[in-house]
User: Fold this.
Amino acid sequence: MVTSASMPLAEAQLNQPFYFLIRQGIFMGIGILAAMVVLQISLERWYRYGPWLLLLVVALLLLVLLPGIGKEVKGSSRWISLGPVNLQPSELAKLFVLVYAAGYLQRHRIALRHSLEAMIRLLIVLAGVALLLLLEPDFGTTVVLLGTVLGIVFLAGVNLWRFATLQGLVIVAMALLIYSSDYRRARLISFLDPWADPFNKGFQLTQSLIAIGRGELSGVGLGASMQKLFYLPEAHTDFLFAILAEELGLIGVLVIIGLYAIIVGRAFTVAAQAERLEQYFAAYLAYGIGLWLSIQALFNMGVNMGVLPTKGLTLPLLSYGGSSLVVTCIALALLLRIELETRSSDPHAQAELPARAMPELSQ
Assistant:
């Protein structure tokens, strides 16, 4: 889909129709290699180095804000240029903050159920990271990150009254952030009625809706999209779902949603198995990966369909974007690692598997 959506743009701007396909293929190769390395790293190491990973991502989020280091595109400073590639620290933040939060929840699992102080400490960390993300600005990643961490806090069994209070504070803060920014407020207004200004503020959303409408049941055919021909901006990144719907129709959309549901469902199954074995770090991490992928996918689809305000969020594993693809591959490898370790410590699972099927887990 990246190839189909990006060829007209790549041909017009770079005279290389397969430019984005080649780069995405390279990123996929890097992601697979990174995933193979992650599969060899024990969960105990991730747990131990969680605070250091948090400090690393905070340092990167600070660096991206410095003039001369952070690369600004369309008013947002979200990338650090590393030669031929750009690193997006906010993508790393999703994973590393999740690893830290899962470890924090294990260390303070009992205290979180009875003490407000333990929750406040976690909230301070989240607020600090969210502030750095908003300074870029990257409101979409902030929403995904907060939603993911709040989700695993809830699943950890925190006091419901305290959780409701925390959730209320986050919602109020998000509302204030939206209405304190003319740019975000304009996006919200255009989302509510994009047809009121279809050639200016509502242009991207109206073109996305036209693409989805053209797809109907079975689509116009792979590669036959009209909206990708310079009508729909960001067709190969944030609005790839609209092109997918146009070319593959409702049937293709349902298949994609089904595949995401399988991944997320498997993540929750692995998490439940780890929780049953009282491996809480592994459980919260698996829950978090499932929540992260589902929240981001649903938000991207919602934006494309006009159900949610426009945000700069990619469709996991499908949209063009090196940092997003590599980090998602690492997250899925972590999920596989969790399953391997829980299976190796589950006597019932060991009894069901042949001896040769059990890998030797590196320490």
Residues 355-363 have pLDDT under 50 and may be disordered. The first strand starts at residue 70 and ends at 73.
